[in-house]
Amino acid sequence: MEQTPIENINVDATSKGASMVAEEKSGIMRLILITTILIFIFGYAITVYWSIEPDPVEIYSDKAWLNEADGQRRITGYTMVNTLANVIDLLLDKPGGFLGNDIAPPSLFMDNMPAFEYGALIQSRDLTRALRNDFSRSQSQSTEQDDLKVAEPKMSIAHGNWMLPSPEGEYKDAVVALRSYLDKLSNTNNPESQFYARADNLRDYLGEVSTRLGSYSQKLSASVGQERENTDLAGDSSATQSSNSAANLKVKTPWLQIDDVFYEARGASWALSQYLRAIEVDFAEVLEKKAALTSLRQIIRELDATQETIWSPMILNGSGFGLMANHSLVMASYISRANAGIIDLRELLARG
């Protein structure tokens, strides 16, 4: 039975309508796909930009000098405290801001820069604690400096906390307290706030630094897995511990944590090299008297070597003498040499 012209028109209209719907759906799918790709590219570009490691801060400052009747006099401790405040400021104000507590894309998918921040933050916490407990106090019975009493607990808040109080706000408050301490150091009419550049204070702080570097060296070296002797009680025949442990230990950094450990150690070395440069300024007389200035400068050189450009797109974990590089072992080598220099420097400072 032949179709009438009206029926043909209806079939054609239905066919065209279905075709238009199909084309519209196809266009929407293409639009969604293109949008997704553009969002991915844009997000990836942001993560690359935010992953650029910050340059070192300016160590020397004109404000570190006082003009007196008999000439200029350097304010003892100003360079060290100012460098600490500037490093914390830079961690908060660099591209992307502080990323350690972000829970939204694209920073949610980043781990290298948050690990770098955490390493620098650990060194900043240690120095803030040393300022409160050692450098600002003449002896164990002396009172605490008020600003440092505020700054030290502010720096101790968990860096990954995304609820109130926010780490960024607490760290900014710590910077404000540190700068208040700087103002008081610059005021010759306020003898209550002091910075004592003494060999014993510096030696105590470097002991904390050595412990940190030793820990990083061990974790970096364990990237390939090692059998180690248990030396926990070595050197003291009467020493005991809470529970028994094996005589031989299998130590290996988990594969998913290798790059995090690497960047944490890199961030710690970045911050520490700047703090040691500030120590070179504020403790110049002490270091020269102990003939320790050259040792300090060599430690800084070793730490600077950890900041060399990484040409590989990822942190490689080859075996010690294999075909593929092991970036963790290279980092461990520099940090171990820096730690050995710290140990030698502490010995020099202990001498009369």
Account of the 3D structure:
By secondary structure, the protein is mostly helical. 59% of the residues lie in helices and 5% in strands. The protein is built from 10 helices and 4 strands. Helix 3 runs parallel beside helix 7 (258-282), helix 6 (199-221) runs antiparallel to helix 10 and helix 9 (293-305) runs antiparallel to helix 10 (327-350). The longest helix has 46 residues, at 5-50. The protein is globular and about 100 Å long.
SSE layout and pairing:
Blueprint lengths: L4 H46 L14 E4 L2 E4 L3 H16 L18 H24 L10 H10 L11 H20 L12 H23 L4 E4 L18 E4 L6 H25 L1 H6 L3 H13 L21 H24 L2
Antiparallel strand pairs: 1-2, 3-4
Helix pairs in contact: 2-3, 2-5, 2-7, 3-4, 3-6, 3-7, 4-5, 6-7, 6-10, 7-9, 7-10, 9-10
Characterize the largest beta sheet: strand count, sense, and whether it forms a barrel.
2 strands, antiparallel
DSSP, total strands = 4
Supply the number of structural domains: 1
Contiguous runs where pLDDT drops below 50 for at least 5 residues: none
- Biggest β-sheet: strands ordered side by side in the sheet: 1-2
- Please give the count of helices: 10
Radius of gyration: 29 Å
What best-fitting shape do the alpha-carbon axes yield?
globular
Structural class: mainly alpha
Task: Report mean pLDDT, rounded to a whole number.
Answer: 85
The share of residues in helices is: 55-70%
Helices and strands, in order, run as HEEHHHHHEEHHHH
Strand content: under 5%
**Span of the ends, CA to CA:** 118 Å
